[in-house]
Automatic annotation (TrEMBL), chains A, B, C, D:
PANTHER family: ASPARTATE-SEMIALDEHYDE DEHYDROGENASE. This is aspartate-semialdehyde dehydrogenase. It comes from the Bacteria. Catalyzes the NADPH-dependent formation of L-aspartate-semialdehyde (L-ASA) by the reductive dephosphorylation of L-aspartyl-4-phosphate. It comes from Treponema succinifaciens (strain ATCC 33096 / DSM 2489 / 6091). Gene3D superfamilies: Dihydrodipicolinate Reductase, domain 2, NAD(P)-binding Rossmann-like Domain. Keywords: Amino-acid biosynthesis, Diaminopimelate biosynthesis, Lysine biosynthesis, Methionine biosynthesis, NADP, Oxidoreductase, Threonine biosynthesis. The keyword Acetylation does not apply. Residues 6-138 form the Semialdehyde dehydrogenase NAD-binding domain. Its EC number is 1.2.1.11. Pathway: Amino-acid biosynthesis; L-threonine biosynthesis; L-threonine from L-aspartate: step 2/5; Amino-acid biosynthesis; L-methionine biosynthesis via de novo pathway; L-homoserine from L-aspartate: step 2/3. The active site is at C158 (acyl-thioester intermediate), H253 (proton acceptor). GO terms for biological process: diaminopimelate biosynthetic process; lysine biosynthetic process via diaminopimelate; methionine biosynthetic process; threonine biosynthetic process. It is an enzyme of class 1 (oxidoreductase).
């Protein structure tokens, strides 16, 4: 069938929802046909619901501007209007959890950006290059809930994306990582809109992001986990200690990483080779949003920089620079990724592309 | 004698030089009577030499505006016009080294902000709260050079100041520190003027500062060293690994620190007590620029922040927040200091106050 | 009586309320003894009500930190606890109007920062240097409402303060101004907290501030009006056309002004003389917050600049630079004032000082 | 002939030079085959000459990275290596003037971004939509100098571009403009690299740009001039008064404009219609860099904004918002253009495209 898959966006008026709509504008497989948000926006044309606060580039994509916004709390409204949904809901964790389940129960798969279901045991938390095999738990998830076609898949916290692929590449190449100390300098778009007040971001940084460090330290281990008996068993390593700070940057999280290998220690040359040759399932499947090179290594002494490097590989690469020895651990480096592309909406779209390619959207 | 000591400022037109002039405006002991800079400025009234680029607050201090700028390369010009000098010279390292020695040879003590003499064996690199005892090498320095009244004392790199006092406090309390991983987020004023282009600091950070990480990792050990046989013998610990980044902040360096103790591990409560009760010689001597509390601990979850906390204790405190366990090392915390006050000019002035109080400026 | 006057702050947890509390910390005449805010904060200690969001410098003034926040909607709570109040209320215009009247009716004078009563006919909108004579309408106001001791006095919009004193100085010197075109570049603190999102203020400006241009164009004429028969009769000139923009600056509004004189045209030298010699009642009365020089003229080609010049004269001066001929009108210049000091809280305090000095707080 | 025209870039290592190289990366007509800069860079591979300071996106275009940089002062080096040059020279005005003439004398046309030849009587200062007819003076220019194939064409100051097309559209529609008061908020990229120090652009604006106001006020009249007897005769109107300020924005100049018509006054509706239907020769010729809509009108109350709107129509549109009556003149509006695309390199490329389409590059 040549027609595109019909897609809904939940939380369509928020920053991540808008980003989904923008990034899906000319998507080869998916087409936004349904938008839902809070009751306050329900009933309005999308263009009126985001009037004076369209955040992504100059214009709302033409096909979406005139869609009527529905109430995201009413999952039945979506029936027949879209085949699966991207969830960019912004509400309480328990509410999101219940609502995502309600969509799944109606037979509508949910590809979620929210943190609510990240720790649900049978919900895969996907970085397609790393843990595509976690898709295997979806069958168990469906069975457990008695869901027929619907299911839930999530993506991890945006700040992790900044360094998980290079870590995975090293582990996979036979160099397990034991411990890491990470400091992140995170962009304000990560907090949504209105998000961080300008009063806090002019001539200032804020050395704290609520809940971020805990997420970072924990989610890492689930992402690197293995599927056993229909469940994801977390990895034990690496142990991560992170400090997350907010800096006056629009898009692009930067991570300063020091790490210690568990046993063998590759040379800097080997590491660079491992990173630049890193490819995985999304590249093999040639998924539309997959970066050709998931990891890009730069040699300038002062890179990566958010404004210059965030758009590398359509905003889907992890850009690394300053690889050098660490005199406390083994190596240190600086890593960067686009938090609202790789780290949020485009990462979610890549998840959906993987699900589609693996047949999870057949027969919807 | 009630009259103030006459002071010269070398490199008086640069940002640190201007900061010295501003901070000495109403100093109880010192009075700026001599300003020197590059030959390009020599012969001009100071106010004309810095016309349209006075950087510190709205106005040039009245007593200095009309001084004639002299050529800093000619140390003999300073004779009779000032009793000691602050060096904020901006030129090649070897040139500065030779020039500071030339002033000392003329009997003019040099209290320097420059990095040129930081590794000269018999030159003390002072943080008065930590290593006042290093003043003992000055006698050796004079003897070695055959200098009568002149000598050189320096201060360390500004970024170190952000966390050296808390480390010293812990060591002194019986908890030696073995290893530290530090990431700094440094203010642009640290690069002088014009310094970092705005093109690099709008919607951006730069994860690199030339030479800074090396300085940070090494200077730490000299500061914590001991005087033996008229020389400073460096400490062996802590081993420091640092990543230094530049962020869009005017003043105030922030450091994210993870550290491991060598043997005993104090509780978080003990650490806070050690820090808040930390006092040293500058406090005992009641030096004019000494902070009453060199270390200030904050309990808000999102502090310290540069714009809000940098002026704590006249810009001379190290402000610490977010003290918490580290799951890789023992503890982590965020620390902040004012890089052009504690970390540069006011730190230099405190050094001079210590020297004065200890009699090093007698009989000039 | 030597004791200070007891003062309440309504809207004490917002940005302007906090600024009042900070600026009154060591005020010679007034002492904050009462703080009130929304019901959400009522009952908490002030320090807890603003926990993690104290915005002005590092610490809450000691005397206020432990005050219990009362519900600002209940004017009777203030009885006996303070003699007059500063209103920094943030709610709907009609609610503020009713609430300020309720306080006045209880015998508590209200010195307001809010816009609600700016166009109430018998409420003076004060810039003490300009229209101290408008105090004369207070007697009429009290009579009209049957208020005994209470009354309301307000201050104008912050952006006007940036250029009203220089305009008034010219008019008063015999050079009435006919027309003005003004573009303002306004600081984000003018929008309160959280106020303008950082997403809008990084690598961006916003050429619109809701309602600001209309206020600017109208309020000017009331400020310059005359009292006739107990009422303020607005001036007819100057006609003002303004464009108000928001820029990434913490404090300090800048105005670019082109103006045309009504008849006689002073030389640039005369204008400078008029401005630098401008003094008025606050200076004659030596009010504690009055600037010695309400207008300061700078000659550097690139000044005034917000970060460098906003603190001039304790943040109470209008700082002018770039005075030059205009080839469309007569002259143009750039003018700057501190929007949260002169333009908000300290301007309000100066109003209260004028009221006190003129006997309006006697017998409270 | 299907091969592309070979192009040189003078001043290739500066910000505008880099922008030219990036924008010509996949140009359908032109190909960069020659790069020249100061003697300091001469002899180096281009990628080494801009090492650690490549400013435009992440990578140097592949075809240019390995070109050897030549000394721009030696025009003979360019012979045979390129057919015409873009001049983005950064040196003294008289030097540029002489050097551009030297290239022209060698038969190499110069399409210049520099201001040196803007006031040369027989050099056209082109905004292709407005004054394509000024190309007629080139014949005279060649004759006067005795140049065979070479000639010089320039573009105006970037800040003018922000509002010249809408003004021209109105004039052309029969509504001549008499007077304008303009305040610009200009991006820092306009000052090149390193350009404006970050110390001046954090929590600050600078209300002055050297020479900019004079250029703005004068160049306007040449652009709108007519060709008579082989020379450009300047227009007499509009009289412009401008204030130019620098704000912390990377790219995108904003202009706040108030204007008075000379006689007839169109309605706001008519004006919008004039603007949105504005087309000219570049659109008719379908030049590769011509915007389909040179003027774009937005209706949101808070637009245009630099970060959101600068890329409109590939960065070649003038984006207008906030069209409304002015109570001093007739109308006011806010206008925005991309200063390093429309206002610099891409504007220069459009000039070259016009020259090519009109046959000025035939037989080179």
């Amino acid at each position: 069938m040549s027609a595109k898959i019909k897609v809904g966006v939940l939380g369509a008026t928020g920053m991540v929802g808008q980003r989904y709509i923008k990034l899906l504008e000319n998507h080869p497989w998916f087409e936004v046909t349904y938008v839902a948000a809070s009751p306050r926006s329900a009933g309005k044309a999308y263009k009126d619901a985001v009037k004076n606060r369209w955040l992504i580039g100059e214009n709302i994509p033409a096909g979406v501007a005139d869609l009527t916004v529905e109430d995201a709390n009413d999952e039945k409204k979506a029936l027949g209007k879209c085949q699966f949904v991207f969830s960019a809901l912004e509400m309480g964790k328990e509410e999101i959890k219940a609502l995502e389940a309600a969509y799944a129960a109606e037979g509508i798969p949910v590809v979620s950006n929210a943190s609510a279901n990240r720790w649900t045991e049978d919900v895969p938390m996907l970085v397609p290059e790393i843990n595509y095999s976690h898709l295997d738990v979806i069958a168990e998830q469906k069975k457990h809930h008695g869901w027929d076609k619907g299911f839930i898949a999530v993506k991890p916290n945006c700040s992790l994306q900044t360094y998980m692929m290079p870590i995975h590449a090293l582990i996979q190449a036979g160099y397990p990582v034991k411990r890491m100390v990470v400091t992140t300098l995170q962009a304000t778009s990560g907090a949504g809109y209105p998000g961080v007040p300008s009063f806090d971001m002019i001539d200032n940084i804020v050395p704290f992001i609520g809940g971020e460090e805990e997420k970072t330290e924990k989610e890492c281990l689930k992402i690197l986990g293995k599927v056993q008996d229909g469940k994801i068993v977390n990895a034990e390593y690496p142990v991560v200690s992170s400090t997350c700070t907010r800096v006056p940057v629009i898009d692009g999280h930067t991570a300063c990483v020091s790490l210690e290998f568990a046993d063998k220690k590759p040379s800097l040359e080997e590491i660079e080779k491992i990173w630049t040759s890193y490819k995985s399932v999304p590249q093999e499947l040639n998924l539309p949003s997959a970066p050709e090179h998931p990891i890009v290594v730069r040699h300038e002494e002062n890179r990566p920089q958010p404004r210059r490097d965030r758009e590398t590989e359509k905003g889907m690469a992890c850009v690394i620079g300053r690889l050098r020895p660490c005199n406390v651990f083994d190596i240190k480096f600086v890593s960067l990724s686009h938090n609202t592309k790789r780290g949020a909406a485009l990462g979610g779209i890549l998840n959906a592309e993987l699900l589609k390619a693996k047949g999870f959207f057949d027969n919807l």
